[in-house]
Specification:
Helix 1 runs antiparallel to helix 4 and helix 5 packs antiparallel against helix 7. This protein folds into 3 domains: 89 residues, K homology (KH) domain (GMP Synthetase, Chain A, domain 3, 2-Layer Sandwich); 68 residues, GMP Synthetase, Chain A, domain 3 (2-Layer Sandwich); 57 residues. It has 11 helices and 6 strands. With 221 residues, the chain is α/β, with parallel strands linked by helices.
Length: 221
């Protein structure tokens, strides 16, 4: 109250403001069919919204986004193009962290529930996606899930390449020579080329190439 009159203070940066926008745009939230479990924001940059449906027939994320993004676009415009990630809430901490770090694809997660820490392992090209521009994505994922998230490069992705000569016992020498003739000196060099290219560029038949690739793949499994 101010001078016996009610004074209302509205903050566009408050999570509650975003919650009300969702209620206006998404009838299922207004009607209580979908619940917003938690909202975290870095106003003007990015927000993450965890939603849950009490009706198995309703996809909470799909309902919030709308056909071709029609519902979410209205909210994004109102917030001057703040990026909004809508996430399916779950009590499974591992899955929730995985969803919260979207759009990055996680290889594996190790949780320490006592300290509320999570070690997240990703392929090298996914690390920058997990962290996000200015670190917004990983900070918000931590706030949303309640875990302090540490990102690590997946060591299994760093298996060193192997020279073709190392497979002399399993692959005939003339086949190795034929592959080396076109510049494929290592196992990964062969595996990365489509069968069609290998058939065109070498004297090998597709059946032989399939057998060679099977042997090479076994080295990395």
């Amino acid at each position: 109250m101010k001078n016996n009159s009610p004074l209302i203070i509205l903050s566009r940066t408050a999570p509650t403001f975003l919650e009300r926008l969702f209620e206006l745009e998404v009838p299922e939230i207004f009607d209580g069919l979908i619940t917003i479990k938690k909202i975290v924001r870095e106003p003007g940059e990015r927000a993450k919204v965890a939603v849950e449906s009490y009706d198995d027939r309703i996809d909470p994320v799909g309902a919030c986004v709308g056909m071709k993004g029609s519902r979410i676009h209205g909210i994004v415009r109102e917030l001057k193009n703040e990026n909004i990630d809508v996430i399916n809430y779950t009590t499974n901490s591992t899955l929730f962290i995985q969803r919260a770090l979207s759009p990055a694809k996680i290889t594996s997660i190790k949780l320490d529930d006592e300290k509320h820490r999570a070690e997240v392992y990703l392929k090298p090209d996914q690390i920058s996606l997990a962290i996000g521009k200015g670190g917004h994505n990983i900070r918000l994922a931590g706030k949303l899930t309640g875990y302090e998230i540490d990102v690590f490069r997946d060591v299994e992705e760093e298996i060193e390449d192997v020279e073709l000569d190392e497979f002399a016992e399993d692959i005939e020498e003339w086949i190795i020579d034929e592959l080396k003739r076109i510049g494929c000196d290592t196992a990964k060099a062969v595996l990365e080329l489509p069968n069609e290219d290998l058939v065109k560029r070498t004297e090998l038949e597709e059946e032989t190439i399939n057998e060679v690739k099977k042997i090479l793949k076994a080295e990395f499994e």
